[in-house]
UniProtKB/TrEMBL annotation:
Gene3D superfamilies: AhpD-like. It holds the Pfam family CMD. Residues 26-96 form the Carboxymuconolactone decarboxylase-like domain. This is Alkylhydroperoxidase AhpD family core domain-containing protein. One of its GO terms (molecular function) is peroxiredoxin activity. The keyword Oxidoreductase applies.
Length: 161
């Protein structure tokens, strides 16, 4: 299965990609823990089946010091003991925010309350934005059949210059 189009080398695709990257920078500059951001992006990408994004966020998380055990258990976070209650709340939000069509009502009040218990308002805004942006990126990757395996940590920063 070959990629359908390389959005990074396409004029319009590159413009869109640069703007998505800039939104991502705003989220990265928030006080939401960087490791948590990668875990949330990884979980949404797993659900959406975006090989490129799974590659990116696994490698970025590892480069930032995330352990192999935690990375391997993200897909089964509910059945593991390696995530904090705050991380579990964020992962639940990522799942419910990603599976909107399946959830018949979106994010549950219970999950929202858990998130609000562990994060301040700015962090909640960053987390909601993060879930929305990774879902947009996943759709770009899946629609274009962008495959994982070739990403090098830090590559986006170099491309956006």
């Amino acid at each position: 299965m070959e990629p359908r189009i390389n959005l990074m080398t396409n004029k319009i695709g590159a413009k869109v990609g640069k703007r998505i990257y800039n939104v991502s920078l705003a989220i990265q500059e928030s006080s939401l823990p960087k490791a948590l951001q990668q875990l949330v992006e990884l979980r949404a990408s797993q659900i959406n089946g975006c090989g490129w994004c799974v590659d990116v966020h696994t490698k970025e998380a590892a480069a930032a010091g995330e352990t192999a055990v935690r990375l391997n258990l993200v897909a089964a976070w509910r059945e593991s003991t390696v995530f904090t209650e705050a991380e579990r709340a964020a992962l639940a939000l990522a799942e419910e925010g990603t599976r909107l069509a399946d959830a018949h009502g979106g994010v549950s009040d219970e999950t929202w309350a858990e998130v609000c218990e562990h994060y301040d308002e700015d962090q909640v805004a960053a987390l909601v934005s993060l879930v929305a942006m990774i879902n947009a990126a996943n759709r770009l990757g899946v629609i274009t059949r962008t495959r994982g395996g070739s990403y090098d940590p830090g590559m986006f920063a170099a491309l956006s210059s």
